[in-house]
Amino acid sequence: MKALLLNTIVVSMLMGQQPFTISGRILSAEDESSIAGASILVVNTTLGTSSDAEGKFVLKNIPPQRKQVQISAVGYKTITVNISDFQLDDVVIFLHPSPILTQAVVVTANKRPQSLEEIPVSMSIMDAQAFEQRNTVALDDALRYVPGVNFQQWQINIRASSGYSRGVGSRVSMLVDGVPLLAGDTGEISFEAVPVFQIDRVEVLKGAGSTLYGSGALGGVVNVLTKEAEETPTVYWRLFSGVYSKPAFDQWKWTDSYRFFDGQFVGFSSRYNSLGVAFSVNRLSDDGYRQSDWRKKYNGFLKLKYDLSPYQSITFSSNFFSQYRAEFLWWKNFQNALRPADSSGITVTSLRFNNSLVYKHFVSDAFYYDVKAVHFRSNWYRDAPRDVRLDQSISDALVVDAQANWTLDERNILTFGVTGNYNRVRANIFGIHDGRGTAFCLQNEFRFSSPFTAIAGIRHDIQEVIGSYTVQQTNPKLAVRYAVDENNTVRLSVGRGFRSPSIGELFTSTANTGSAAIVVPSVNLKPEHSWTYELSSTHVLSEHLQLDVALFHNDFYDLIEPHVFSDSLVKINFKNITQAKIEGFEVSIRTKMFEHLLSCDVHYNYNWATDRNTGTFLRFRPRHIASVNASMTLPVVTVGADYRFISRIEQIDEQLVDLAPIANGHQRVDIHVVDARIITDVADIGFPLRASLNVNNLLGYNYNELIGNVSPPRHFVLSVEGVVR
Amino acid sequence: MRKEVLLSIVILLSIFSACDQSGLNPNEYQDPGFSGSIMVVGSIPPRDSVRDLRVVAVPYYPVDTTVADLIDKILNKQVIPFSESLSNNVAPNTTLQYQMFVKPKTYYYVAVAQLYGINVFQDWRVVGIYGYSPSTPAPSPVVVVDGQMTKNVDITIDFYNLPPQPFKK
Lengths: 725, 169
Known about the structure:
heterodimer; A: 725 residues; mainly beta; Immunoglobulin-like; Maltoporin, Chain A; 2 domains; 22-stranded antiparallel barrel; five-stranded mixed sheet; 5 helices; 4% helix; globular; disordered N terminus; B: 169 residues; alpha/beta; four-stranded mixed sheet; three-stranded antiparallel sheet; 2 helices; elongated
């Protein structure tokens, strides 16, 4: 790999002892093209910004004693610039492209910013460009291309950890800007509530993460990082509209009309002295390609960041989400796969909002801390026609988290913190319950020598449903990283994860709701826990080629699964019934060819997921997951295509098929999906406009991620977006 | 650069070959079930003691059960499917063809049952089991996959050399 190039720097004038300003452009060292979205941070302060579409940036109020600025961008080598005692004006900084993503700065692995190549565990990231190019309107659409990740409809599964849990409990923890976003009642992830248009990047941590993130981080962590405010007033807008192809088979036709979807987004971002402001609203309307599968959703987002000083900031974020949709549980039968089994016209309304407050303080170069508080309200209800309310749940989740990072000396970085949470649930099917919890974590990063680092950590959690249920868990972690040379790195990690049963799993009761399946409470559940072992390595094989390999082994204990039993009636409860072993490997090859015009990433993940009790393959887990992502950037035009393959789910829940019942519920196939896109960006020739055409499921392949649910057919999306400054 | 180009070609070929799949297709769908032949060995009892003859598919091993239990599961809980009556076509040393449409699952015990008396809730006995022979006395499972007809589930019956009966006395 070429050494990084840093062709700076025009120095304008000597600095005094006053706060000063840096401004300039970030360019690619290879072709001098602008790098948009590069992160520019003043080391050991809260000050930072990102480059605009022309690569320009401005950083104000830098304290005179600050010596370094770190610049990073996905696909480029991260560099740290010594700014010495000079003010820099119109500085030009060249970043050298890399075939690899390892140069990105991430925060999820150890709760502090560090280069992806420094961390001792497996992590994938998706940047804003990946979301924009795919015209992503829901977070889960984009996460389907993260190596080792697949979905059962809306339920995420990292390296086969999750399966399908019928809407309660998630074995993956979800964070937005580092604060958790799991529903207080079911413990579910609400992907649709994430403000997709404000995403700066998403970090996906694979394997147990409970040492830092507590309950739920059994199989991994998804952390969504939102964008920072622009330096100058900037308005963003995007309009898109799409149409689904007609059904592939005459039997599946249920309407003669085409089905459309459309969306609008507008956002504003600016910095006013010490205050950064970003807000946006967006709307989505979808007719649905299936009968009774329409939805309308609205989303509002506000982020205010105020720099109290160069070393202190306070950030307030608010996100509102409203969705009204028809309920499509599963098909009528295979010959009527786009009609619902239940056509009684049930609708589901969701109202969710979360507010968070984050205070960050750099006390010194060696010590900083932050305090986060978040409140997440989830309110949903199911209604039958004529205003007959079937189910309703209102839950509040309050989390307060304080965490500090202390660089003890050149060899030790200590991270420690305390977390408290309070959940309040009011629901007809879950009952009335309050829960609370406390956790303490401690972690140290040892830098024994230049190529060798190790991390040891531990967290103790106490979780309680007041008056009925208390659990305590201690989760340790040990990870080491050894840089063999500049191009080869080896990592080894061991960690424990756990998941406390959700209030939904403990107390769901449908005895009085008229449901066909009677679910009874399961108050004696134990928490699930897991041990994750991973050996991984990164090899830069040439300037154009990088190989990542990971071997993993997970042991899961006391997995909670639905259990069917019968007295006078058939009933369902939740039980700790499964011990499981999931092992496998993951290989990623990343290339950039033809002077970096063409990038191509190939990922393959093999999972061997067995139920230790029965010896059978675990339910709802795929054995093979593969994807290929290719993109070619030409003047004005970018073309790209993604292919993903998921092998046929080997084992499903036979009781679910029999009891629901899901007619022809065994019908499932391998998944082959190709999404293609062409994007034209005319900003360089004077118009602040970008237009794209996406053709998703280009081959019109008919498949289902979840039994009884055909996935979307080929659909076309035309999108236009612009930036006004 | 040559290996990157070679890698790209391999990837593209792999995708194109992998994409040559039909996916879900209701036109290729067949109601699930199993079919086969019933070979009658030797002579048959008088007609009034072969009042009914049916293939039954039990999704578990019916060890140490009673006829009444099985009848209850057939009639009331519908977990044990059975074929149309074969008694009118049975004859010495003949082979009958049969077909059953059942839920896709594994049937561990597929047998031919004879109603030999007038009590339809009690007077049944097993005269043939799929996979059974005196030298291999264990029944063979029949796996039925959704959308497919499992073929060649052939059963030999001998009214005068009965296989082991699962029923309690």
